[in-house]
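tokens incoming
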């Protein structure tokens, strides 16, 4: 342990780096009063409501210094105390990158906790890719968003100290600038949700199309679970389809189940017609597409350790390196450990399929399952996350525990 003068939190406490000079000198306010945020958002008026997610409402606001902000009012913080909350927030607010949405500050009032983010003006990837009446997103924009979000994630995973797992990568958490640059939002935030006891919580139900198999089976999250969710997002960009699509054509099949073999075929044959979004009408660069398909395919491998790191994905998408980079342990792109089997010692494909099938069934049968469950954007542009009955969540958790006992 270092003898740094900052290790003043006790022999077993975390060694916190010093605050950024601008914070220490008071140039940048990071702690807000509820009154200040209320004033900034016009009293949290409906007119300033940007949307609602699993954590609560998000309002647009304007600070006296002219800075536009997005204020997220947290419904709960997973039972965290003020100190813990502040420690998490301090860590997150130290992270700044071109492709990450900065946390500007926070507010802890008697009853409420709020987070203050920089405002990103042009909605979400979910809105532009799947929103009703949106113009078709061209190939160049799709690639730009894929690369931008990969860079943001790579920074979190590989360059931050401590490293940060996003935990909730999905198209609704990719915010878009006016020039269509991507900014990853809400990293580290899932810690504040009430997932601690039942890992399949209401909020997670809303994002389960992105959920890595090892998370479904054990609740364990690593940077490689983020890579999986990112892979699902790439599949969305490639195919134009939602992670869970309940239309008759693909009924009862998740995007990833459908896409895995189709990706392998496409990579082998060089023919991407079956895979690629028909709305592109053939307007794409075939080499860039091939690279994106290879990245998607490698990122959604069942075996977490065989998924690439985000920095490798960035380099492949930018065309800087050969696809070989994606071949961990000699696995060809696309040839995932799809049928790695039960004796591989890992959570195998069969168990995964069974879990997902059951999970989907519970979600659809829960009675409150609606279009929002699939991350739809409502007509009003508000993204209301799922509100699934707790009963089904608990049931699912119990069932997974039972199935694990038999593994
Ligand atoms: N920093 C921001 N700038 C501009 N708009 C934002 C910002 N953060 C969130 N929003 C808007 O608020 C909406 C709701 O965001 P929120 O993060 O609460 O929900 P979500 O992303 O759908 O789900 P989750 O709670 O899992 O993150 C987003 O869809 C987006 O339109
Ligand atoms: Mg979000």
């Amino acid at each position: 342990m270092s003898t740094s003068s900052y290790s003043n939190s006790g022999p077993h406490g975390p060694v916190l780096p010093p605050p950024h000079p601008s914070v220490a000198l008071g140039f940048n306010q990071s702690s807000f009063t509820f009154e200040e945020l209320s004033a900034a958002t016009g009293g949290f008026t409906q007119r300033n409501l940007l949307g609602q997610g699993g954590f609560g409402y998000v309002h647009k606001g304007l600070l006296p210094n002219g800075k536009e902000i997005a204020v997220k009012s947290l419904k709960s913080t997973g039972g965290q105390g003020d100190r813990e909350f502040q420690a998490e927030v301090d860590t997150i607010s130290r992270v700044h990158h071109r492709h990450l949405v900065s946390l500007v500050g926070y507010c802890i009032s008697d009853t409420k906790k709020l987070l203050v983010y920089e405002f990103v003006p042009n909605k979400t990837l979910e809105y532009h890719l799947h929103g009703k009446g949106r113009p078709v997103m061209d190939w160049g924009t799709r690639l730009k968003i894929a690369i931008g979000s990969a860079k943001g994630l790579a920074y979190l995973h590989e360059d931050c100290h401590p490293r940060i797992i996003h935990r909730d990568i999905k198209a609704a958490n990719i915010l878009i600038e006016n020039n269509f640059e991507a900014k990853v939002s809400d990293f580290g935030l899932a810690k504040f949700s009430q997932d601690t006891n039942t890992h399949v919580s209401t909020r997670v139900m809303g994002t389960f199309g992105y959920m890595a198999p090892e998370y479904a089976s054990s609740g364990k999250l690593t940077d490689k679970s983020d890579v999986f969710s990112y892979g699902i997002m790439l599949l969305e960009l490639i195919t134009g389809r939602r992670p869970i699509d309940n239309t008759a054509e693909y009924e009862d099949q998740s995007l990833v189940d459908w896409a895995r073999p189709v990706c392998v075929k496409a990579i082998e044959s060089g023919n991407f017609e079956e895979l690629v979004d028909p709305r592109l009408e053939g307007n794409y660069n075939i080499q860039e597409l091939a690279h994106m398909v290879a990245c998607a395919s490698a990122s959604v491998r069942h075996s977490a350790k065989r998924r690439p790191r985000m920095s490798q994905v960035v380099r492949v998408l930018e065309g800087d390196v050969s696809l070989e980079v994606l071949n961990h342990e000699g696995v060809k792109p696309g040839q995932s450990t799809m049928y790695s089997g039960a004796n591989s010692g890992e959570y195998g494909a069969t168990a995964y399929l069974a879990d997902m099938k059951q999970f989907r069934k519970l979600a659809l049968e829960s009675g409150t399952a609606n279009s929002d469950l699939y991350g739809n954007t409502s007509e009003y542009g508000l993204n209301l996350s799922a509100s699934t009955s707790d009963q089904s969540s608990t049931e699912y958790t119990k069932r997974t525990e039972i199935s694990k006992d038999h593994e």
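note: The longest strand covers residues 56-62.
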